[in-house]
Amino acid sequence: MASHNTSTSETKNLLDTSHDTSHDMSHDISGDLDDSEVDKTAMETDLDKLHKKKHDKVGDHDKGDKSHVEHDTKDDVETEEEEMESDVEKDEKYGSLELDFCEIDKDESAAGLIIPDAAIDRRRDGDIDDRVDDLTRSLLGLEGGVEVTPMSASRRGFRKYNEALKGALPIRFKKSAAEEIPSSTAGFLSLMTFSWQTSMMWNIYRKGIEHVQHMRIGPREQSHTNSERLRRLWQQELSRRGPKNASFIRVVLLFIRTRFLIASVFILLTVAAQFSVPAFILHRLLSHLNSGNLDTKLGIGLVVALGAMELGRALFFALAWYYNYTTGVRVRGATMGLLYQKVLRLRNLGDKTVGELVNLLNNDAQRIFDAVVIGPLMLPGPLVLLAGLIYMLWLIGPWAFVTVGTFVAFYPFMFLVSHLTNYYRRRCIVITDKRVRMMNELLTCIKLIKMYAWEKSFAKTISAIRAEERRFLEKGAYVQSISTATAPIVPVMASIFTFLAYVLTGNELTPVIAFTIISVLNSMRFTLGVLPFAVKSVADAKVSFKRYKDILLMDEMEPHRWQVFNDRYAVVMNHATYRWDKEPVKNSDKNGKGKPFRPGQEENERLHSTDTGNGDVTFVDTPTLRDITFNIEKGKLVGICGSVGCGKSSLLSALLGRLINVSGKTAIQGSTAYVSQQAWIMNTSVRENILFGEEYDEHRYASVVEACCLVEDFGDFVDGDMTEIGERGINLSGGQKQRVSLARAVYSNKAVYLLDDPLSAVDIHIGRHIFSQCIRKLLKGKTVLFVTHQLQYLSECDNVMFMRDGMIVHAGTHQQLMAEDTDYSALIKMFYSQDKKKGGSQESLEGRPKSIHKQFSVDRPDLMRQRTLSSGSRGEPPQTHRQTSVMSSRTMSVEEEKKEQSGGGKLIVAEEKHQGRVGLPMYRAYLKAAGGYMVTFLTLLLFLVAIATQSFANWWLSHWLNQGSGNTTVTDGNLTYVSRSISDNPNLHFYTSIYGASIGAMIITTAIRAFIFMKVTLRASSNMHNLIFKKMMASPMKFFDTTPVGRIINRFSSDLDEVDVRLPSASEMLIQNMFLITFSLVIIAVVLPWFLIALVPLVGFFLVLNAVFTSGVRELMRMNLITKSPVVSHVTASIQGITTIHAFNKTQQFIEKFQELIDKNSCYFHLFNCSNRWLAFRLDLISGSVVAFSGLCVILSYEHITPAQAGLAMSFAIQMTGLFQFSVRQAIDCEAKFVAVQRLMTYSKDVESEAPAVIKDKRPPADWPKPGEIIFDKYKMRYRDNLPLALKGLSFKIRAKDKVGIVGRSGSGKSSLGVALFRLVEPDSGTIYIDNINIATIGLEDLRSRLAIIPQDPVLFVGTVRYNLDPFGLHKDSDLWEALEKCHVKDTILSLELKLDHMVVENGENFSVGERQLICMARALLRNSKILMLDEATAAIDTETDSLVQQTIKDTFSECTMLIIAHRLNTVLGCDKILVMEDGKVAEYGRPKDLLQSKTSKFKTMMEAADKQGESVVS
Questions:
Q1: Within a 13 Å sphere around the CA of 1381, how many CA atoms are in the beta-carbon half?
Q2: Distance (Å, rounded) from C-alpha 1118 to C-alpha 678?
Q3: Phi, then psi, of 995 in degrees rounded to 5
Q4: Which residue has better confidence, 1399 or 1246?
Q5: Nearest to 1353 by CA among 1403, 1283, 1288
Q6: 1333 forms bridges with which residues in the sheet?
Q7: Are 922 and 1241 in contact (CB under 8 A)?
Q8: What is the greatest pairwise CA distance in the chain?
Q9: Are 1054 and 1161 in contact (CB under 8 A)?
């Protein structure tokens, strides 16, 4: 590396600029991709590849830098030479898209800093346009001289429908692939009747769901195809309208426009057929009946026409649903794919949380699907009203306006419902995001929460959020329930208003007019009945679209604009200044740095501020990194050191492109690999974690594994390197995770390595081996930036940079810096002096120069303290997730597992998959949660009364019309006769009063029913939530070890959302419609008894359908829910590892994996929805048969019934049209949604509970433990049944107030001691005594609340600093400040504007890892426990701060018993005893002095190795 004070001109000569024009090119060639444009997608994929080659040309140098791990062989040298290609060779091979510098002014070239001006841009863009035009011609099959004219473009646009138009053929004989959904090759008739699914449903019934487990979605429904098209449309929208005015809703409408129009046509045909039956056929039939002279042949002809219209309605409706479902699946896959791609390209997550993003990709995608599927059903409403108005004007004259007016008045009501639904949904979704975020945080940090006995505190917080969420859920549910109940009564109310006005004004109302109008209104019932659902779906989707747009407008990570011009250098920074966030002038900091925080404020602002990224943007004064200038030569090893929060990790993040460049220039020549300070591990095998998508090379792999000291670990693993690793490396020790992460980077064979303190989690021997064999030897020839607090390794680095307050204050070789009187030399000398004083290192701290404290203080100005993320990313949380705590972030060690008989190396338990119907116990459990059987009975009774009032109104009208004039005689001149007009009935007032009063009865019963139903269903979901939450919190750690967080989150987000919202909505419609059908069938049977004969076979057909095929619907729903969990887990893992994914350039690999998971889920999701329609069509045939049989019975028995009775029967039969299949489908849907109840209740019944929190008759004294003596007596412990012992008969005694240092290699059992002490796992045998009390006999809360732990991986929660220190609010502010001062982090908190009320963002990422550790230490101080465990608690802290903290520990905890796990041996030299662990046993236990005097001591061997390193540091 060149000297730090390299001149600016020299540095400038190393850089040139790179300007990417691929974005512009994509706009030149992109066009509208419709449904079937698979070929065009392939064409544009080729174009993308061309752009990628241009964009990655800089990366071609990386290939030249790549060499095999063994650098000393001739083959490696030859390979490296072969991979090196000149620019000319690359141009000939790929076609250069690079900027041509031949004509650039010589003065500019001499300056070495080439900035493309407008002329160069135009020249280059012209060349690129020519290339793109040539490629476009070749891909379109055009001859060289043929122009791409508008005419040819239009023909191409028409041809894009060729594949889709094949579906218009009545029958297609082409068979789909064996594993592909058959709908893609089905003919028109098969699509209309869903016959393509018949064999599948039958096979599921006979063979089970396994028959379709290997099916895949069709190519036109796949996420990749659709997300790419949606992305292009979104980019076009942005380019045309700008970010502020761009509309994601408009883009989605453009995406679906063709299919939307086709589906709308079929919906209109459906409504037309449905309207024609009562308006024309029934009216003609009733007219003939009323005349008393009916032609039987004509009557039968009318019945046949009626049946034909019903069949046509069913066919058109089925086809409309098919189009809507396929369109919805495409939009769902496209939006989820687009959002996931955007998230992976974000520079940081801003104010978004993992929980919110999971919610967006889970629940919000479902709401967008619902809007696409159900939303179009709103369109026929106005047309139906217009047709109804015209028809009734012809029938009853201007009184038709009363009818239509009632319907029209319903639309403002629905608009109000939509507004209220939107409002409550918007408010509720913010709270739901907050709850899911808290759940995610709780689950990922569950181990620490259990060890601190904080379950009650978190449960209280979650309960408060849930209570607030329930309030808005109740309001929204009540509005929705009123809407649902109102839709069916609108036709009844319209008929009542119309007939009363018509009769009371002296008009003659006949049965023909009355029941024709009623039947027309009932046919319009569907349009109105679906309206509340359509309005709700659109309202919900509108909120989701805004949330999606908010994410899509966030800043993406951009590659460095400059390139290294001099091949001698790999990394160059020239006066570079960086910060984490750019912020609007009006807000000083959106993360709480510069403005007060109000609870809920960030969520509300987040929801309303969808135009982020627009307007004037400025930077706050003090950035994270300031004026960084250096040149690093290729192949050099550069050490970077400095105090906590000085900007070391931020420097690596800046090189990775994660920070915003305020000024200056940065360039990297070659590909990069990155090792984060807290390792990110995937839930897959160890080998796959290391390969990370690269091809397996046995020789290279073996070399990497040996260099990273993993060979012995693999020998201990269950299946070697094929052993499955749990989420976030849950079953690995901290050192093992770090070594696997390092092995991944080394195996990737990149040119530049960014290592962020990779040796902090390993012991001294492993650290030395890794540094010498891996970093020095295996990475020889690579450029390595090595951030470390392990100062003993800096002397072996080629160069060293020392940082303070975001600046490089010293740079040079180790020898140069030691020769000068610098802060660096003072730090090294202090470090060495501590190591030399064996046993007295703590006392030596008092003699250190006082100036050191000032030089290495952690104090930093507020504005300077942006985000010094050790993980290198706003989006990558520390890997303490879930197992943050004791010791190595685990409760189960892979090396302790042996192969189980059936499990092999599998750790994660497969998600349970229930078979068969949802049993009665689930329904009973739901009813019990709702309030019991009596509450359920009363609710159903209210439904019965509400529906009875509606049916009563029509029955009363029929009864009134049958009474006629009441035998009233009238005189017309000299002629006297009995009147047939109901207007002459003397009891007219009585009949009209009863008829009118039914409106009031309907309104009152509907309002009461809606309120009670809302309360009952939300009571059920809330009680279930509380029950399973309580049960889950009481689960032992092995449950969390073997269950992915995504799976649990899926229960508390997607499944709970089903029970909260969708199940009540479906159940309400089902109960309402079942009562309507029951009343309809009863009235038809009373009027037409012969109808019962025809009803028998129809019921039999229905029972066969229900028995045989509903199981298929249910199983497909189960598979839909099960395949959702991997999607959630993948999204969560991707967000947590976003920095590593970026650094290794694996974004595309993760996108492809996500698309694969989405396509798998979409397959079952689509089959489930289509199976519903398969059944619905066949049920529509049954309901059509009911109408036809009713008409036939009327024809055959017209002499025995009155026209009013015939009209009543036919109106109820027509009312069943569509209602029957909808109700049965709702019943199946409800049962399918009860799968969510079943999945939730599984956690309340099937999950094992740990020991009680409190055992009343076994409570320890209030001051226990007082002395703090600990005795392990023949203690044995295993993590799971059938696994080998992790602790093997430990017996030793720790005297009260003793300080015991615990050392040993990774996996030796150090972590297991903490697991045993906190009873995270119960003993196999043996006992632990604390002050003569057997800890196994007392409650877990009594035990854990009396102990304290400072974990290796620090955990901070979302909330204030005060909340993180004292979640129960037990301490005064003065106590908090005192604890912070003792931990040397007080000045850091004082520098924040809000001090103790400063908000900690998710995972504490607005503090460095070292600062987090100090805050965690302050938290432990406040517990004032007599027994304290420190698990490498200062691993991420610089040496000077470590010295201060060690002194604090000595002074503050002098009266405590302490167990100190450490890899820095100097931190345990002052301990009273040293415990050396090996293979789960005590290898040595004694005083440090005695162990160091023993020639065979393992501890002495470790110390001697440390001494050698210390001597090399100052040499």
A1: 6
A2: 37
A3: -60, -45
A4: 1399
A5: 1403
A6: 1330
A7: yes
A8: 140
A9: no
Residue appearing with tokens 């993320």 = 869
Q: Which residues contact 718 (CB under 8 A, 6 or more apart)?
A: 894, 897, 898, 899, 900, 904, 905
Between the alpha carbon of residue 1378 and those of residues 644, 1438, 1452, 1502, the distances in Å are 20, 22, 11, 37
Helix boundaries (H) for 770-871: 814-819, 823-836, 841-844, 850-855
Q: How far is CA 657 from CA 353, 513, 642, in A?
A: 21, 75, 22
pLDDT over 70 (residue 860): no
Give the residue from 1440, 1438, 1392 showing the smallest Cα distance to 870: 1438
CA distance 305 to 281: 8
Q: Is the dihedral of CA 92, 94, 96, 98 positive or negative?
A: negative
279 neighbors 394 (Cβ within 8 angstroms) = no
> For the segment 951-966, what is each residue's pLDDT rounded down to a tens digit?
888 888 888 888 877 7
Q: What is the DSSP letter of 361?
A: I
Which of 446, 686, 641, 672 has the alpha carbon at shortest distance from 559? 672
- Contact by Cβ (8 Å): 1121, 1059: no
Tally of CB atoms within 10 A around 634: 18
Measured between alpha carbons, how far apart are the two ends of the chain, in Å?
Answer: 21
* Whether 783 contacts 570, CB under 8 Å: yes
d(CA 1277, CA 1323): 5
737-766 residue pLDDT tens: 888 999 999 999 999 999 998 887 777 778
Q: What is the pLDDT of residue 160?
A: 58
Using alpha carbons, select from 108, 111, 115, 116 the residue that is nearest to residue 12. Answer: 111
By CB neighbour count within 10 A (0-12 exposed, 13-18 middle, 19+ buried), where does 263 fall?
buried
Contact between residue 443 and residue 463 where contact means Cβ atoms under 8 Å apart: no
pTM across the whole model: 0.65
CB neighbour list of residue 508: distance below 8 Å, 6 or more residues apart = 981, 982, 983
Nearby residues of 460 by Cβ (< 8 Å), 6 or more positions away = none
Q: How far is it, in rounded angstroms, from Cα 999 to Cα 199?
A: 49
pLDDT at 1113: 78
Tell how far CA 749 is from the center of its chain: 32
Q: 3-state secondary structure string, 618-631?
A: ECCCCCCEEEEEEE
Higher pLDDT, 1462 or 498: 498
Element (H, E) at 537: helix 531-552
The Cα 642–Cα 639 span in angstroms is 10
Q: What residue has token string 């690596």?
A: 652
Kindly tell me if the per-residue pLDDT of 898 is higher than 60.
no
For tokens 């116990």, the residue is 921
On the question of a cis peptide bond just before residue 1064, with omega within 30 degrees of 0, the verdict is no
Query: Is 760 within 8 Å of 790 (Cβ atoms)?
Result: yes
How far apart are the C-alpha atoms of 763 and 795, rounded to whole Å?
A: 19
HEC per residue, 1418-1450: HHHHHHCCCEEEEECCCCCCCHHHHHHHHHHHH
Backbone angles phi, psi at 317, to 5 degrees: -65, -40
Q: How far is residue 893's CA from residue 584's CA, in Å, rounded to a whole number? A: 48
Give the tens place of pLDDT for each residue, 122-142: 444 444 444 444 444 444 444
- Read out DSSP for 176-206? PPTTB-GGGG--HHHHHHTGGGHHHHHHHHH
Cα distances (Å, whole numbers) of residue 973 to 508, 655, 985:
20, 107, 20
Residue type, 1427: I
**Which pLDDT belongs to residue 328?**
93
Q: Report the phi/psi class of residue 30: left, alpha or beta, with left for phi > 0 and alpha for psi in -120 to 50.
A: beta
